[in-house]
Amino acid sequence: MEQLAGGTAVVTGAASGIGAALARCWAEAGMNVVLADIEPDPLEAMAEELLAEGARVLAVPTDVSSAGSVDALAKAAEAEFGPVHLLCNNAGVGGGGLIATLSEADWDWVLGVNLWGVIHGLRAFLPGMLAHGQPAHVVNTASVAGLITTPFMGPYNASKFAVVAISETLYHEMRMTGTAVGVSVLCPGWVRTRIHESSRNRPGGSVAPVGEGLLSSVIASGLDPAQVAGAVHAAVVADHFYVLTHPEMTPAVEARMEAIVSGRNPELRAGGLFGSVQPASASD
Ligand SMILES: NC(=O)c1ccc[n+]([C@@H]2O[C@H](COP(=O)([O-])OP(=O)(O)OC[C@H]3O[C@@H](n4cnc5c(N)ncnc54)[C@H](O)[C@@H]3O)[C@@H](O)[C@H]2O)c1
Fold it and tell me: How far is CA 148 from CA 7, 95, 184, in A?
């Protein structure tokens, strides 16, 4: 999708981190931007920031884990700006713990936002994006955790592997059916955002995430979200599918693939999400 200016972008999880950086990027590219997030105050602040810079913006409080809420988002976006050209299914939460200790609610929350959020986004927006026939693009935010597995992150890994699988499937389908819709999947390593504070949005109240100390330190050393948004911008314009922003982690992806094809059991390797640092226990 080479021409961005004048088109309309929708970004979920737009009030913070990678979503906020994507929203700024699309506004700078001259797109109308629809901001969706579950946190109303930061959402409003983001809208005000972009409006002050002269962008055309609509902010819609949205819970991406709710089908009805995402349907309402799609209606509001189309009512305000007409056809949607760029859909960024980005909202996500980090949650985990030892699989043996996780509750149904733990799985529900992470899969509800990270997996169902993407599914609802595709279901609500894709038909319109196909119907208008103009160049369009879908960006699904997965993670390196959609390509390699790390202990203590079961629900998150499951959600992100699923997002990669859905994105690849969608890519094939869009190609096979000759549509004007491109697809990218974003698979970053650590990015400097508020992901380690995700449970602020958990229904039923915040709980301290497993390995909070370790998480905040790796997040603090992560990539600037603006750099990630820049990589996504380049991928959308060039129609690139895989957007990997942390080359130091690709050997771990290769090692996993090699283990699969050569019949070896899974191994934890330096260069994965925690590098040589291993979480010490489930309760640190
Ligand atoms: N930060 C990282 O290191 C990293 C790495 C790989 C992938 N990701 C992915 O990037 C995406 C963005 O996360 P981030 O790192 O910017 O975190 P963040 O917490 O800074 O931003 C996430 C945003 O999503 C919103 N959100 C949470 N639940 C929601 C819901 N139910 N409905 C709508 N909005 C909701 C939050 O309010 C927040 O504004 C996520 O999908 C995350 O899994 C992050």
Answer: 35, 16, 18
